Amino acid sequence: MSSVQSSRIPAGVPLASAALFGFRAVLVALLLALSFPSGATELDDDETSAVTGDLEQQKQASNLELMTVAEQAAAATRALTALQQDIAALRSDQQALDQKIAATAARRADLDQRIASGEQAMADLSERHDAVRLSLISRRGVLAEVLAALQRIGRDPPPALLVSPEDALSSVRSAILLGAVVPEIRAETEALANDLKELASLREAIAVERSALAKALADNDAEEQRLSNLAAEKVALHAESERRLEREQQRAQALTERSAELESVIASLAGEIETIRQAAEAARKAEEDRQRRLAEQLERARAYAAVALPDKNRIAPAYAFSKLLGVLDRPVAGDTIRYFGADDGAGHPLSGEIMATGKGATVLAPVDGWVVYAGPFRSYGQVVILDTGEKHHVVLAGMEKLRVSTGRFVLSGEPVATMGQTRFAGASALTLASERPTLYIEFRKDGQPVDPRAWWKDEMSSGKVSNDT
């Protein structure tokens, strides 16, 4: 029965035409799943290729992801190296800044010391100034007399030769007084003048020094503030670099772990692919061995059949199915009411034959074969599928009671089932004149239906074969 054809079942005719729509798909699946008499379930070449192809695609995808992860890991390694170099440079800069800050602090201490020394010198000079001033104040009376005498002499100088006795005496006194006081006053005046000059010079120098120290202090404060800001910035950059370094290390660790996982997955996929290939190869060899053993059994059966009747205890078909054209008996006595390719009444060709049989008639195996399926199917009665070798299958359907089970080997002419008392329920696309039980027969080659009339001996003798399959 073709899996792509659509046909209907005549009223009371099991498994014919459109009623086979769902049955055909199940039948094809059964034939594919049960195509090995030994019940083997190995994957065929197409399935193996599909599975290995999927695994290869997964392996290639994993390889591509592994390459991407490797590139990311290399980039992370480069980033880690750059960050470590940046951190080392920041540490070096921080050390240099610390040294500059220490030097600035030393200069500040030196400037403070110089300011203290200048202030002490000014204090000493001020004391000397105060002492000279007090000395002058204490001798103010003597100095006043001397100055008055000097003023008188300056206004009215005595004559050089002619003086009165009173004037001479006064002049002598003045001379004596001036002779005693003037030298000392002159010395103290000169010392005071020198001290005052030195004090003025020191005050000017101290003022200049104080101005220079003030500017130096301002510059030193500015430099210290700048260095402090730089140090704080370097500390912040160092902390940020440390955080980035930690993040990059975590990312590199994650990439390393992902890389290890991908390598493990790739190795697992490679092992699985190899296992599937080995299993497929083993299945292929097993199938070749089975086919070889089957061919040997068939060859022995043919050789035996050439000289004697088939062995009743054989476990393989006595003859190749393709060699049995025109020699098979129909599986049940009755009349063929629909042939292969006939119109089923719905515009679709039948994929098999329909025979009207007697009530309770025995259905015989038309040929040697393995029972790959025996059981009911929906409302269409019992179904038996025989594997007759050479990728041929015989399908019998519409029976009421089975006499065989799945997995058995049946001989030609061996009872496999009995018919019921009437037809099984089905679609009523066609109307038959009789309610007799009906048997559906279908021959398949490589999963496709073929005309069974080529194998019936009565069809060959009557010349009713519709094809030369």
Description:
The structure is a single chain. Strands 1, 2, 4, 5, 6, 8, 10 and 11 form an eight-stranded antiparallel sheet that branches. Strands 3-9-7 form a three-stranded antiparallel sheet, with no helix packed on it. It contains five helices and eleven strands. The chain is 58% helix and 12% strand. It has helices at 20-33, 45-138, 140-155, 165-307, 457-462, and strands spanning 334-338, 353-357, 362-364, 369-376, 382-389, 392-399, 401-402, 409-410, 415-418, 438-445, 448-450. The model is unreliable at 1-22, 32-43, 426-431 and 460-469 (pLDDT under 50). The two termini are 15 Å apart. It is an alpha+beta fold and 469 residues long. The chain is rod-shaped and about 200 Å long. Helix 2 runs antiparallel to helix 4 (165-307) and helix 3 (140-155) packs across helix 4 (165-307).
* Count of individual helical segments: 5
Helical proportion, percent range: 55-70%
> How would the global form be characterised?
rod-shaped
How big is the Rg? 66 Å
Instruction: Summarize model confidence as the mean pLDDT.
Output: 77
Summed up:
With 469 residues, the chain is of the alpha+beta class. The chain has 5 helices and 11 strands; from the N terminus they run H-H-H-H-E-E-E-E-E-E-E-E-E-E-E-H.
What is the topological layout?
Elements: H1 20-33, H2 45-138, H3 140-155, H4 165-307, E1 334-338, E2 353-357, E3 362-364, E4 369-376, E5 382-389, E6 392-399, E7 401-402, E8 409-410, E9 415-418, E10 438-445, E11 448-450, H5 457-462
Antiparallel strand pairs: 1-2, 2-10, 3-9, 4-5, 4-8, 5-6, 6-10, 7-9, 10-11
